[in-house]
Design brief:
The protein is built from 11 helices and 4 strands, in the order ααααβαβββαααααα. It is of the alpha/beta class and 265 residues long. The protein has one domain: Collagenase (Catalytic Domain). The longest helix has 25 residues, at 2-26. The protein starts with a helix and ends in a 10-residue tail after the last helix.
Length: 265
Amino acid sequence: MLITVLQILVVLIFLVLLITIVFKITRKGRFVDPLPDHFPDLLEEHVDFYRNLSIEDKKNFEERLRQFYHDVRITGIKTEVEDLDQVLIGAAAVIPVFAFREWEYVNLQEILLYPGAFSRDFDLTGYHRNITGMVGTGPLQNEMLLSRQALRQGFSDRESKSNAAIHEFAHLIDKTDGALDGVPEVLLQEQGVEDWKKWMQITLQSMRNGESDIDLYGLTNTAEFFAVVSEYFFKRPDLFSQKHPELFSMMERIYFLKLQGGHLN
Ligand SMILES: [Zn+2]
């Protein structure tokens, strides 16, 4: 009788261990549940978009962040991922799709965080250390590469129109429909696609004419244009709406957010 009870106990303990191990393997993120207590404070201090939200929207934002960490792994390359990096990456992921409650980055599994800029062959010390972020292709499909330096600067330099991490997430959103072409069809109705293409061409022309304050890197191609204006839109909505009112309305249609006056309303 005693042996039977012991045997059952051993089997039970084994089963519990097995379930725990399998559960841990299938969970990808570092933080799953709940969000660490100090993350809202880090958001409040470093992320303007979050700071300007209502209390209710802040709770939504935190929940979206928690979900993002569940879905996507963040790995440091020759560096440790600090809590602030974790918070800023999550914020850059959530901000552009904040209006789309069910959004999931289906084309992203892992983010590789580098201490600084890297070259195209991921050499950290070579001559062409000019890349601050990229969305992987080929063997790096479903991966995003980011420089910590650029990530942090994107949030700390509040006057600039750039944010490297938001730039890369805008590429992922653009790519969701299968084409990295600057036309995020997944977020736009048919008429919206036509209107967007029209405003894109008008703005590109003014950039070529030297009449625009938009970063000229956006002239590289339409995908870069979309990523560059997305950074500007989320980083300096106040300035964007003053300088480019029509394009601003178009961006509000794409991202389904009202950012007039720089606040979500
Ligand atoms: Zn880009």
